[in-house]
Design brief:
Elements (H helix, E strand, L loop, with lengths): L3 H28 L7 E6 L3 H14 L3 E6 L2 H9 L5 E4 L6 E4 L5 H17 L5 E4 L12 H23 L5 H26 L7 H26 L3 H16 L11 H7 L3 H14 L5 H36 L20 H24 L1
Parallel strand pairs: 1-2, 1-3, 4-5
Antiparallel strand pairs: 3-4
Length: 370
Amino acid sequence: MRSPALRHVLTHLITPLLMCLGMGLAYMGAFVTPEPNHLPVAVVGAGPRAKVFAQTVKDTAGDRLDVRTVDTRAGAVDLLRSRVVTGAYVPDTRAPELLVATAASDMGATAVEKVFTPVAAEEGVPLKVTDVAAPVADDPTGQGLFFLLIALSIGSYASVAALGAAGATLPMRIRALLALGVSAVVSGIGALLAGPVFHLAHHGLGGLWAMAWLYSAGILFIGVGLHTFLRRWTTLTMMVLFVMLNFTSSGGLFRPELQNGFFGTLHAFWNGAGFVEGVRSLLYFGDDGLARNIWTLVVWLLVGLAVTAIAAAYERARTSGRTAALPEQAPGTEPAPSAEPAPSAEPARRKAEAAIREEAEEEVEETVGV
């Protein structure tokens, strides 16, 4: 290609076009056709009749449902509050009841209601739906936590460009300290939004802030470390890790039982799922499962610290190599005269610095733009 300017533009178009493809595949693959996939439900009853009914429901639904029986209604409520099942049906010829926990998943509750409403209709009676764990009135669908996740993610991965690109000339320890500070600010903004501004968290705001900090710090340290190796491709990598794969597997809109196996598998260990499910545990389910989700966030932070440490060691080795490549001169001696004066290195140095600044500005603009 003869035009350097045109080649430069086309090269920089690769990132947004790959983002377009990746976002389309991820979001449409995860959200467009939500279908029950081994959705766990329970039928309340201890006798043979309940077991036969449960087997009938299972045979009719196939792989869409995983059906179990539980002896008592109280036992079914416990299963819902521990998020073992998504719904529990209490058969009754006069007043059948469906137990759900919309705080765990509003879409999941809707899905099980669609399953059991026709069952009650066959008996000619209306189905009573009881919500045993409802979200707060300020977040009636329980999806506010998903949008909080988006805000925290954008604040974190967009800051990587500033820390990695614009701060590339700073020592890694300074960038790491800045990442620590930025994560505190991002998580503070998240706590402010979840508490005083939108009232998603009526209690446990300190715990929410702590999980937001773990989540944000993990992203920032991973990004700062990766930037040493990936440079301008860091933006695309961060979008893949913490948008395309992260938002879709978080369970904020659809829990894994309403998605295909790929996103359901990611939900088990991805950091976005750790944050969303951890906050749900804290706010609505009496800390059930909270420790596991906190450990998920801690492991991601440890990965980020490890990546940053590896990047710091690499940068030190690279700097040492450049220093060793310089010609040695004995102390107290004058440089040997040469037949011709050596050309000044100043223009080359300035040109290199200008190129670094230009690359950093372009990377920041790309990240902020998306």
